[in-house]
C-alpha cells in the first residue's frame, strides 16, 4: 500500500509540474525567447498580476512599502519584467511592447490560470492596457494604481508641475516646440538640486526616502535604458479603453504630479470605479488600509 501511494505521488508530481512550481514563493520562469524572469507569488485569493512601473524598476517597491496588504485578499504574482530588477535581459535587445505582453501571457499559461486580474502601477498601466486589449478573455478585472495611459500627457504634467515647484516659468525648462520628453531630464536635475524631487510623488519626504531605500542600483536596468527607443510605449492607450468591457478599479492621487492629478479623467472604460485618494503617487504606501479596503470591495463583486 505504501509503495502504491509513493508511486501515485510520483505520477502527480510528474504530471503537475506547473502547479508544484506555482506553490513556491519565488522562482525563475524562462520565456519562449530564453529570458529568465524572476517571479514571486504571495497571498491567497484570486490570482492578480502586479505590473510594476519605472519604466525599468521592480515590484519590491510595492510589496515592501505597504502594497502587501492586498495579499490578504488576492494571490499576488510579482514579476520583474525583462531587463528589470532580478530578471535577465534579452540577447536580442527585444523590449518591445508586443514581447512584454507575450511574456505576461506565457507566464499565465505556465501557471495554469484561466483568468487573472491585473494590477499595474505608474508606467505599468501602458503594458496592462495593451495586454487586456489583446487578451480580454483572460482578464477578470483591472486595478489601475496611479497609472499613466498616455506617457506624453503625464510628462506634460511633470514638466508643468516641476516648474511650479521650482517657481520658474515653463519656458525656462522647455524650449518652444521641444518634445516634452527632451525637457524631462533638465526638470529632474533641477528638482534634485533644490531637494524638491519628492514633491512630484509625495507630500512627505520621509516616504520618498523610504521608497528610494528599497531600490537597488546594482540590479538590471536594461529595459529602463532601452524603452524610450520604442515608439509604441508613447501611444495614447486611452483610445483603447472604450472597448474594454471588464470591471475596472482606478486609483488616482490628488497630489500625484508625476502622473497628473486629473490624468484619470481621460480614461474611457465602460465599467470603471474611480477612487481619488488624498495621496500622491503611492496610495498603498501612504494609506495602506484604505487602499486595501477599496481593492477588497472591488474584488468581492467579481464573479
Structural summary, described in words:
Helices cover 39% and strands 16% of the residues. The chain contains 13 helices and 8 strands. The radius of gyration is 20 Å and the shape is globular. The chain is an alpha/beta fold and 303 residues long.
How far the N terminus sits from the C terminus, by CA atoms, comes to 42 Å
Rounded Rg: 20 Å
C-alpha geometry: globular
Query: What CATH architecture label of the largest domain applies?
Result: 3-Layer(aba) Sandwich
Proportion of residues in extended strands: 15-25%
Counting helices, strands and paired strands, the structural category is alpha/beta
**Considering the protein shown, what is the CATH homologous superfamily of the largest domain?**
Alpha/Beta hydrolase fold, catalytic domain
What's the number of extended β-strand segments? 8
List the domain count as a whole number. 2
CATH class call of the largest domain: Alpha Beta
Amino acid at each position: 500500500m505504501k509503495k502504491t501511494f509513493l508511486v501515485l505521488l510520483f505520477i502527480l508530481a510528474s504530471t503537475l509540474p506547473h502547479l508544484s512550481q506555482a506553490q513556491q514563493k519565488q522562482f525563475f520562469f524562462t520565456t519562449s525567447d530564453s529570458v529568465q524572469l524572476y517571479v514571486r507569488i504571495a497571498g491567497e485569493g484570486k490570482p492578480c498580476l502586479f505590473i510594476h512601473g519605472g519604466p525599468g524598476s521592480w515590484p519590491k517597491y510595492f510589496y515592501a512599502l505597504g502594497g502587501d496588504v492586498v495579499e490578504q485578499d488576492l494571490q499576488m504574482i510579482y514579476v520583474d519584467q525583462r531587463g528589470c530588477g532580478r530578471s535577465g535581459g534579452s540577447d536580442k535587445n527585444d523590449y518591445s511592447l508586443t514581447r512584454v505582453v507575450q511574456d505576461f501571457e506565457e507566464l499565465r499559461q505556465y501557471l495554469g490560470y484561466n483568468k487573472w486580474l491585473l494590477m499595474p502601477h505608474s508606467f505599468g498601466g501602458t503594458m496592462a492596457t495593451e495586454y487586456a486589449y489583446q487578451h480580454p478573455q483572460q482578464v477578470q478585472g483591472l486595478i489601475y494604481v496611479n497609472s499613466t495611459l498616455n506617457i506624453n500627457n503625464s510628462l506634460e504634467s511633470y514638466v508643468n508641475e516641476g516648474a511650479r515647484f521650482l517657481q520658474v516659468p515653463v519656458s525656462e525648462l522647455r524650449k518652444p516646440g521641444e518634445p516634452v520628453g527632451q525637457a524631462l531630464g533638465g526638470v529632474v536635475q533641477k528638482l534634485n538640486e533644490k531637494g524638491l524631487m519628492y514633491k512630484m510623488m509625495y507630500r512627505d519626504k520621509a516616504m520618498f526616502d523610504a521608497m528610494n531605500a528599497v531600490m537597488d542600483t546594482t540590479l538590471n536596468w536594461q529595459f529602463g535604458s532601452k524603452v524610450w527607443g520604442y515608439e509604441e510605449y508613447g501611444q495614447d492607450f486611452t483610445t483603447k479603453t472604450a472597448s474594454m468591457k471588464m470591471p475596472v478599479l482606478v486609483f488616482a492621487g490628488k497630489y500625484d504630479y508625476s502622473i497628473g492629478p486629473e490624468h484619470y479623467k481621460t480614461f474611457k472604460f465602460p465599467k470603471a470605479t474611480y477612487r481619488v485618494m488624498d495621496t500622491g503617487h503611492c496610495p498603498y504606501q501612504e494609506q495602506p488600509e484604505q487602499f486595501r479596503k477599496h481593492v477588497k470591495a472591488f474584488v468581492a463583486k467579481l464573479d
